[in-house]
Write a structure and sequence with these properties.
The complex is a heterodimer. In chain A, 35% of the residues lie in helices and 26% in strands. Chain A is built from nine helices and ten strands. In chain A, strand 9 and strand 10 form a beta hairpin. The longest helix of chain A has 18 residues. The termini of chain A are far apart. Chain B is of the alpha+beta class. In chain B, helix 10 runs antiparallel to helix 11 and helix 13 packs antiparallel against helix 15. Chain B folds into four domains: 193 residues, no CATH class; 203 residues, no CATH class; 214 residues, no CATH class; 171 residues, no CATH class. Classes of the chains: A alpha/beta, B alpha+beta. Chains A and B meet through helix 2 and helix 4 of A and helix 15, helix 22, helix 23 and helix 25 of B.
Chain lengths: 244, 843
């Protein structure tokens, strides 16, 4: 994987909700590219369009205008089924909450995308990912028997285990206390470092964003600022200057 | 709180619609049964009024049998004596019996259930009966006949055509001179009609010198009681003269009884449907309440008392119950209307009358519908009251695991009660035994429903075991989802159980009956061929012309032809009615009677042969009996037999039958071919003779078994069709449960979709979950049904051997699984369309 390769991108992305007077432009001609192997954080105030951007880039939602690509695949040209298959093969997800199927144990939740696809689990890789996530002794537990942090780590492991091109994480620590948060963030960071995993994380928390390689700031559906090698302080400073 | 209830109903429209549909269907069935049968009754009332207006007195034999279709006779010499009495203006002698019409292709018309009536015609008939001439004239000569308008229309007969008629004595050709209706109906509930001039009617029904009754119209100004007393004075014993209105009233009672019985039968099935509906409603409310835990807890938190919450859920049920029941009653009226036209269309016409919707029908429909809804909502409403104000914070699962042991004990307790009711009803002789059996079965169903959640999880895991292997994770999730809420799965499956169980009961009984008959025919029939009519006809009012027996005897290829007839009799002590058979002396050459004592050769006037099941009689004992003609006598027991072929306990000689019964048709003939003849080789010769009698069907043993089997199957199909409503409601229940579960698991499905599950896979997952529920219901139903059916078969006894219809049971299982697929179609589609973003977005 070369550093210049782009894992996913949105070109001239427009997303409009509603019509007429109630029209809301959640994305307003946005251009953004997520470099392969990089950990990108998306920040912005409520309503800035960061979740919408993630959903459209990840193939969970469709753009009203412009184009979204995962690798070189144009998402708008895909049927519903092709989109589903693409998500299954190339995208990993970590949501803010309710990431796990309650009836399945941790290991089954982790292999869920592979099982859905009917593929084979690479046991070595599975062990490596779960080991990295610190889940080795939790694999046979049901989600209800896991702490919030453990649940999000299982979700992260699930996102990684199918070797997707890109992992999207939507406020993955939004529901966690600070200790669990830093655990989960630490594992995401390691995934990027050790496995070269491309990660895009939506967050509103500067501390979370500070572990990324690059922070992209959104406002009113546009990319307004980019910050390489962020720290908590530099992020806070930018947020202030953006009036957030 | 009422306002909240109303709003809640409005908000839960989708969820409640399916529930309401269960109520609507149940109530529709109940109301439809009443409206249909009430309309039937009032139609008959109109007929009776047409008939009864002019007849003042009726002279007839004293007979008050329920079972018998025979009227008894009066001597024809009585007519002149009656006419001689002052005040009698007109006396109309009437003959009434049975004869079957034959169509132009030589096929018998009717005779598959409704009677094939034959009457004598009199110029005064327009006055004394409900028969009305549509065209032509009444029969006046020996070769003339009038037929009913439905038959004429259906078969294209017009006045002037020739028509063959099967009479007890043979097949004769008549010329149609008139077409008649029953009042304004073309026929009477499928009954065909043949009218002849009086002497011809007497001749073909073998009633020469006799009438069945004499209807009398008195002169203007005559005092009817006086005329009645004068006639009564010279009547022989066993005859009576009654007021015309008494006869009408009796007829009306008979109709009421018949229609009432029909109504009861329909209502039984309607109540089964309602009972099943109750399961669905209860289940829906429980799910809705638990899904609304947060809302209810919020109400509690802002100060609503538990009682208020209960009341709210209760009011909600009341609103749904009232609306659904009202729709159900309306739908019931439409159903009755539809049934009425259906009946007319298939030739079971009944006299036109208004559709009768009695207030009683509406009240019962509403009470049943609202009642079952409220009763089903009680438990969930009470559960709602217990929702703690803080429950809003937690995701509460049902408390079922804590009460596992309690559930087991309660379930077993109820099961014992139900089983006891069943056993008492089946094996002891009490009044209302049937009702007790029915209620017992209902209690057993409840017990199994209570116990089912204890089995649901294990069942789902075992039966669902192949799913993960077949379908991978999709199958795994389907299985796990099914058993996730064992109580919900069990309640849904239990609704299906009831219908399946009842079908299985009937199937078990039918299979046992068939097996027994096959065995009896195999071991007891020694005749080469049997001859019977084709249809279901009551053997006491139709059959084969006896002439056929003589025609066959005339063949060189035939050595023995024996004749069997049936009739009703009454036990003069216990007053219970039953059927007897009459054998001619050759029967023991064609059937192995398995005599246990006595001598069949001594059968004749004044003697009787009893089945070994009849207790308390030995050879030489007097056996008291009453015949439909009013004769009460003691018969000497001359033989005890063990054959179960006829399913009859009492056999008299043919001579005594002809003395005491009017029926001259033969119910069955058994034929032995001559020694040295090959039965197969001579069959065409026999068939040529039998073919002269359009309603006679000749069969060898194997064909006979098949024929009886087909008749039993036809009955089985009718009952299954009536149970279809209960099964349909149960399938709706599966749809409902699946729909509710999908609403509940919206986020889960959204997540699965997000991580790459295709819509097709989501559908498959939901479908297999429904299939598992369906199979669970079917297995419960089949087990309960087979056990119940076995108990019934054992209780009936009479040599019926318990046989399980494995093939059919397997078919029901597969059908239930397919029913699950069908029931899941809509929920699966809905689940597959789950909007991912909406589902996963944080609430």
């Amino acid at each position: 994987m070369t550093d210049t390769r782009v894992a996913a991108r949105v070109v001239g992305g427009i997303k409009i909700y509603g019509e007429g007077d109630t029209e809301v432009r959640a994305l307003d001609d946005i251009d953004i590219a997520f470099e392969a192997g990089k950990f990108t954080a998306i920040m912005g105030p409520s309503g800035s369009g960061k979740s919408t951007l993630m959903h459209c880039a990840a193939g969970l939602d469709t753009l009203s205008g412009g184009a979204a690509y995962i690798g070189e695949t144009l998402l708008s040209g895909l049927s519903e089924k092709e989109m589903t298959l693409l998500r299954r093969q190339k995208v990993g997800f970590v949501f803010q909450s309710f990431n796990l199927i309650p009836t399945l144990v941790a290991s089954e939740n982790i292999t869920l995308p592979i099982d859905i696809a009917g593929g084979y689990v690479d046991q070595e890789w599975f062990d490596m990912v779960t080991g990295t996530m610190g889940l080795t002794d939790r694999l046979t537990h049901k989600p209800s028997e896991l702490s919030g942090g453990q649940q999000q780590r299982v979700a992260a492991a699930r996102a990684l285990v199918a070797r997707p091109e890109i992992v999207f994480a939507d406020e993955p620590t939004g529901n966690l206390d600070s200790k669990s948060s830093s655990e989960v963030l630490g594992f995401l960071r390691r995934a990027a470092d050790e496995f070269g995993q491309t990660i895009v994380m939506v967050t509103h928390d500067p501390k979370s964003a500070s572990i990324s390689d690059k922070v992209v700031f959104l406002a009113d559906g546009r990319c307004v600022e980019e910050l390489e090698g962020p720290t908590v302080d530099s992020i806070l400073e930018r947020m202030k200057s953006l009036g957030g | 709180m009422l306002k909240l209830s109303l709003k809640s109903v409005a908000a839960n429209k989708v969820r409640l619609t399916l529930t309401a549909l269960a109520i609507v269907l149940g109530v529709m069935f109940v109301a439809g049964s009443y409206v249909f049968t009430d309309s039937l009754k009032s139609a008959f009332d109109v007929l009776f009024e047409q008939e009864g207006a002019t007849v003042d007195l009726v002279v007839r034999a004293e007979t008050d049998f329920q079972f018998a279709t025979e009227l008894g006779t009066v001597p024809d010499t009585l007519l002149a004596e009656v006419e001689a009495i002052d005040g009698v203006q007109t006396a109309v002698p009437i003959i009434s019996g049975f004869a079957q019409l034959v169509d132009q292709e030589g096929n018998p018309i009717g005779g598959v259930g409704p009677p094939t009536l034959a009457f004598s015609w009199d110029e005064n008939f327009d006055d004394v009966s409900a028969l009305t001439l549509r065209s032509g004239r009444g029969p006046e000569g020996p070769g003339e006949i009038g037929i009913d308008a439905f038959t004429a229309d259906a078969k294209g007969f017009v006045v002037g055509d020739q028509i063959d008629v099967i009479t007890p004595l043979g097949v004769e050709t008549f010329e149609i001179v008139g077409i008649l209706g029953f009042g304004d109906a073309d026929n009477l509930l499928g009954a065909t009609l043949a009218v002849f001039e009086l002497p011809t009617a007497q001749r073909i029904l073998d009633l020469e010198g006799k009438y069945n009754q004499i209807s009398i119209m008195t002169a203007d100004g005559a005092d009817i009681p006086t005329v009645q007393a004068e006639i009564a004075a010279f009547l022989d014993e066993g005859l009576e003269v009654v007021l015309g209105e008494v006869e009408i009233e009796e007829g009306r009672e008979q109709v009421d009884q018949g229609v009432g019985g029909f109504n009861t039968a329909l209502l039984v099935f309607a109540m089964i449907a309602v009972f099943v509906g109750g399961f669905i409603i209860q289940n829906t409310y429980r799910v809705i309440v638990s899904q609304r835990t947060k809302e209810l807890a919020m109400l509690r938190a802002v100060g609503a008392t538990g009682a208020q919450v209960t009341r709210m859920v209760f009011f909600e049920a009341l609103i749904v119950g009232i609306i659904a029941s009202a729709i159900g009653v309306g739908a019931g009226i439409l159903l009755a209307l539809g049934l009425k036209s259906l009946f007319s269309a298939i030739g079971f016409g009944f006299p036109s009358g208004p559709l009768t919707v009695l207030p009683r029908t509406i009240i019962i429909g509403m009470v049943v519908g609202v009642g079952i809804t409220l009763a089903s909502a009680i438990l969930p409403a009470r559960k709602a009251a217990r929702v703690a104000p803080l429950a809003a914070m937690r995701d509460t699962e049902s408390t079922y695991f804590k009460s596992l042991r309690k559930r087991l004990y309660i379930g077993l307790g109820v099961l014992v009660i139900g089983a006891a009711m069943l056993l008492i009803g089946l094996f002891t002789e009490i009044d209302q035994a049937l009702l007790l059996v029915g209620l017992g079965a209902g209690v057993v169903f409840l017990a199994v429903a209570i116990l089912a959640p204890l089995m649901a999880r294990r069942f789902g895991q075992i039966v669902g075991a192949p799913l993960p292997r077949m379908l991978g994770i999709t199958g795994r999730l389907a299985r796990d989802n099914a058993v996730r809420k064992p109580r919900r799965m069990a309640a849904t499956a239990s609704a299906l159980m009831i219908g399946v169980a009842l079908v299985a009961v009937i199937a078990t009984m039918a299979a046992s009956l068939k097996a027994s008959i096959t065995e009896a025919v195999g071991s007891e029939v020694s005749a080469d061929y049997q001859i019977e009519t084709g249809g279901f006809a009551d053997p006491t009012m139709s059959g084969i012309s006896v002439q056929l027996a003589d025609d066959l005897r005339a063949l060189d290829e035939v050595s023995v032809v024996s004749v069997v007839r049936y009739g009703a009799y009454r036990d003069p002590v216990g007053q219970t009615e039953s059927f007897l058979a009459a054998f001619d002396p050759e029967v023991d050459q064609t059937v192995r009677l398995e005599l246990e004592a006595g001598d069949f050769g001594r059968m004749g006037p004044g003697t009787v042969m009893l089945h070994s099941d009849v207790e308390g009689f030995g050879i030489g004992d007097p056996y008291p009996i009453e015949f439909p003609n009013g004769v009460i006598t003691d018969l000497e027991v001359v033989a005890i037999f063990g054959a179960s072929l006829f399913q009859i306990d009492v056999v008299i000689s043919m001579e005594m039958y002809e003395e005491n019964f009017d029926n001259r048709f033969a119910a069955m003939m058994l034929v032995n071919v001559a020694a040295g003849s090959d039965p197969v080789a001579v069959r065409p010769a026999l068939e040529a003779v039998v073919g002269e009698y359009p309603n006679a069907e000749m069969s060898d043993k194997e064909e006979y078994v098949d024929k009886v089997g087909a008749q039993i199957d036809a009955l089985l199909n009718v009952v299954t069709a009536l149970l279809a409503m209960a099964i349909l409601i149960a399938l709706l229940g599966i749809t409902n449960t699946m729909a509710l579960s999908i609403i509940e698991r919206r986020r889960e499905i959204g997540l699965l979709r997000a991580v790459g599950m295709t819509r097709r896979q989501v559908k498959r997952m939901i479908r297999w979950e429904a299939v598992l529920i369906g199979i669970f219901g079917a297995v419960l139903g089949l087990v309960v049904g087979v056990v119940l059916g076995a108990a019934v078969v054992v209780a009936i006894g009479e040599g019926i051997k318990l046989t399980l219809p494995w093939g059919q049971l397997l078919f029901y299982l597969v059908a239930a699984a397919l029913g699950g697929v069908l029931a899941s179609l809509l929920p699966a589609r809905r689940g597959a369309k789950t909007d991912i973003l909406e589902a996963i977005s944080f609430e």
